Amino acid sequence: LALGWTCWKTYVGRPDTDGFRSASMATLGAALCKNERPEEAHPVLEASLALKRRYFSDKSILGAQSSLANCLSILGRHDEA
After folding, report:
1. How far is CA 75 from CA 3, 4, 45, 65, 80, in A?
2. What b/e sequence results for 48-57 when a residue is b if at least 16 CB atoms lie within 10 Å of its CB, and e otherwise?
3. Interatomic CA distance for residues 66 and 21, integer angstroms
4. Is the Cβ–Cβ distance between 1 and 35 less than 8 Å?
5. pLDDT tens across 32-53, in order?
6. What value does the mean pLDDT of the chain take?
7. Is residue 20 a contact partner of residue 11, using CB atoms and an 8 Å limit?
8. How many CA atoms lie within 13 A of 62 on its CB side?
9. Tell me, what DSSP letter sits at residue 20?
10. Using CB atoms within 10 A as the burial measure, which of 12, 15, 68, 77 is most buried?
11. For the chain, which residues score pLDDT lower than 50?
């Protein structure tokens, strides 16, 4: 979890189009979800997906959708996953 926060703090000031910023947001969301904090992970993963849809490739969008679906499943929101 500390690595996720460190990544985010390091790259948060970069532009939305920066790949490191995008990756750090995804890392933070995954770390929150894996450390039993899916309620906190959900909005981070939603923002990560929105960012990838706007600026990045289909491959990165698919990864973000998968991470979000996993988080929603953990939250018991299977119909949205």
Report:
1. 23, 20, 13, 15, 10
2. bbebbeeebe
3. 19
4. yes
5. 999 999 999 999 999 999 999 9
6. 95
7. yes
8. 3
9. H
10. 68
11. none
**Residue 53 tokens, joined:** 């849809």
Q: Look at residue 16 in the predicted model and tell me its pLDDT.
A: 94
Which residue's entry shows tokens 């018991």?
Answer: 76
- State the Cα–Cα distance between residues 22 and 19, nearest whole angstrom: 5
Round to whole Å and give the CA distance between 52 and 30. 15
Tokens 């000031």 belong to: 13
Spatial distance between the Cα atoms of 78 and 46, rounded to a whole number of angstroms: 16
Distance CA 44, CA 49 (A): 9
Look up residue 44 and give its two tokens.
Answer: 């981070």
Q: Which two tokens stand for residue 10?
A: 């390091």
CA distance 47 to 25: 8
